[in-house]
Amino acid sequence: MATQAHHSTSRRDFIFVATGSVAAVGAAATVWPLINQMNPDASTLAMASIEFDISAIPEGQSVTIMWRGLPVFVRHRTQAEIDEAKAVPLADLKDPETDEQRTKPGHEQWLIMIANCTHLGCVPVGDSGDFDGWFCPCHGSHYDSAGRIRKGPAPKNLVLPPYEFLSDTLVQIG
Amino acid sequence: MSEHSTYTPGNGLEKWLDERLPIIRFSKEHLMDFPTPKNLNYWWTFGAILVMCLAIQIVTGVILAMHYTPHVSMAFDSVEHIRRDINGGRMIQSFHAVGASMFFAAVYIHIFRGMYFGSYKAPREILWILGVLIFLLMMATAFMGYVLPWGQMSGWAATVITNIFAAIPVIGTPLLELLRGGFSVGNPTLNRFFSLHYLLPFIIAAIVVLHIWALHVPGNNNPVGVDVKDTKRDTLPFHPYYTMKDAFGMVLFLIPFAWFAFFAPDILGHPDNYIEFNSQVTPAHIVPEWYFLPFYAILRAIDFNILFIDSKLGGVIFFGGSILILFFLPWLDTSKVRSGNFRPMFKWFYWLFVVNFVALTYLGAAPAEGIYVLLAKICTAYYFIHFLVILPLLGRIETPRPLPTSISESVLGKAH
Fold first, then answer.
1. pLDDT by residue, tens only, chain B of 416 residues
2. Do B186 and A44 touch (CB under 8 A)?
3. Of B356, B37, B163, the residue nearest B155 (C-alpha)
4. Is there a domain that residue B39 lies in?
5. Do B315 and B279 belong together in one domain?
6. Do B281 and B317 sit in the same domain of this protein?
């Protein structure tokens, strides 16, 4: 067939490939909305930003607040905790970050972090572990007083949400 | 091995049907006359028991779905409503929950049976692969079903297991949000898990049909692992010989099933699941149901970075690998002899593997501290060494014992 009708075969091949391509693009375009419906919906996205008054948290205490359905630790650190975190050499860290990178300038006493362990998402327990910070008993990850991973299976430091200080007592998260 | 059926339609209606949809002929060939090796022991009964388990889960599940509410504010209470208010709801709920455990107990026996007697070897590779696929789907289904009561263990199981996907580089976080339908495990997650938990058992049922089809082309393996040579001497028709034997096995299996369901319906679960899900507080020990513990131990065992792969992704790779490696078992075992009965060295390593698997189960439930962490690493390493080193080597260095010349000879002795 290829030798007898070479012209019509190549023309047919072209139509074949062109039709197939259009069908593939069409199928992909049809499938996308069927997958995209699973992404966070408008009502979820609408809850993406909150404001929080930190004035009620005494030094040395933490609160856990809800943001995007995730727990967030807001810790009012003591000077001792801050000094301890600053004294750690970067070489000791699994995920090297300085204490300055973990806080906002002028607000070093406030540590605000998403409370899910970076291993598998459990919520670590405060004021515990080997490094004066947080400990996740589920799989054994220890975090220091800047929320940095020091020991255990978690690969990263506790994640910082996007946030800014609107005033000395009001924080906007998200 | 399937022979042409001897079925002749008995009456006018059967004849009319046979020319249009030969379903009676099919049933006769595959459920009644199907030639089955006459030396199958009771380990082979678990195939039939598993069909029964799937049927129990589908029937009780369909009924539970009539009373369950897949919403974060009502799911927990609706399960309690089923257990307290619905007529007979307490029984139906425990049949379903206990049924999941019994299903996994049976499937583990079925898999280990296959591993001992070499049921994965040629010409049954596709049969084995379909089986592993069913096992994977069972795990997904059981996991999503476990989330539905929306207790502390449910919600945190969903959080931990979906978090596995966040380990994938680059696309991890967007993929996680796509799977959860939000930034955290919430109502969209519960809704879709309910929908998929209802769907997957029917897909499992469809693959079970393929699994049985792939069984009926080469025919059953058997305890001596020798092919059927003479259908007349080596086999028996499936009905009534194996239908009755399987029915007896089912009755025995239903005794522990009934004991759990009637006397201790909650003993296999974790008490924390009777606390409603709270996304702000993690239970001190997150443990999955017992049937996931070996794989959970492997997931936790990797707490160190491997080159550029961090500990989290590493754990996920080993966790996934521990199940996916089963797909390659037919090619990892290089021995020509099927049955472990005739492989003196394999026998020892097989039982060592079983002990190691039980140890992983224990370690999956142990806290991640002290000696348990080290033991989990050793057992994880041995799990992979068994498949990747021991099995390929054994086939080359082992001298198997002589095989019987036929199934009939192995049953009746040489004189026949």
1. 445 567 889 899 999 999 999 999 999 999 999 999 999 999 999 999 999 999 999 999 999 999 999 999 999 999 999 999 999 999 999 999 999 999 999 999 999 999 999 999 999 999 999 999 999 999 999 999 999 999 999 999 999 899 888 888 889 889 999 999 999 999 999 999 999 999 999 999 999 999 999 999 999 999 999 999 999 999 999 999 999 999 999 999 999 999 999 999 999 999 999 999 998 888 878 889 999 999 999 998 988 888 888 888 888 999 999 999 999 999 999 999 999 999 999 999 999 999 999 999 999 998 877 899 999 999 999 999 999 999 999 999 999 999 999 999 898 876 54
2. yes
3. B163
4. no
5. no
6. no
pTM for this model (two decimals): 0.90
Tell me the binding residues of B for a ubiquinone. Answer: 216
Q: Which of residues 131-160 of A touch B (CB under 8 A)?
A: 136-140, 152-156
Could you tell me the end-to-end alpha-carbon distance of chain B, in angstroms, rounded to an integer?
Answer: 23
Helix axes B125-147, B152-163, angle to 10 degrees: 130
Q: Binding site: what residues of B are annotated?
A: 96, 110, 197, 211, 216
Residue from A6, A76, A107, A139 carrying the catalytic annotation: A139
For position B66, which CATH number holds? Answer: 1.20.810.10
Q: What is the ipTM of this complex?
A: 0.77
What domain range is B55 assigned to?
44-264+275-286
Residues in chain A closer than 8 A to B298 (CB atoms): none
Q: How many domains does chain B have?
A: 2
Chain A residues inside the 8 Å CB shell of B159:
116, 120-122
8 A C-beta contact, residue B292 and residue B268 = no
Q: Is B285 on the interface with A (CB under 8 A)?
A: yes
Which positions in chain B touch A64 (Cβ < 8 Å)? 280
Task: Say if residue B127 is in the same domain as residue B66.
Answer: yes
Token output for A5: 């009708």
What chain B residue is nearest to A69 in terms of C-alpha separation? B184
Q: Copy the structure tokens of residue A169.
A: 């007592």
Q: In this structure, are residues B155 and B279 in contact, taking their beta carbons and an 8 Å threshold?
A: yes
Residues B356 and B251 in one domain: no
On whether residue B180 sits in a domain, the answer given is: yes
